[in-house]
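Predict structure. Input: C-type cytochrome, 129 residues.
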Amino acid sequence: MRTVERVLGHAAALACAVTLAACKQPPGSRYTFDSSVREHGRKVIERAGCAACHEIPGIDWPEGRTGPSLAGFDDIGPIAGALPNTPANLARFVRDAPSAKLGSTMPPMPISAEEAHAVAAYLYGLDGD
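Output follows.
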């Protein structure tokens, strides 16, 4: 009987080891930006009023719910469910969503291309892990 228990114990330990070996380490942020660029992006978000429509970590008020939450943005897939999630596409989308993705209900934002890049930098820092 002890042999059976021992064999089952070894089998369970082996199953745990195989399971752990199959787990991947969580990916790091896709993109990294200088902290000063990210801080500039946060200020642009506040000035442009992005939080009126989106919940955005780091922006205390308002916490809009018209648009999707941007919490954990670094971990999401395609931008607006359609565009490959790259810094260039994100900057283009946050500046002029209707031209970046036809049918988008997000309005064009009164920000420069440089400010849009900074906003993208801030959003990629919103890692949900």
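The longest helix spans residues 2-22.
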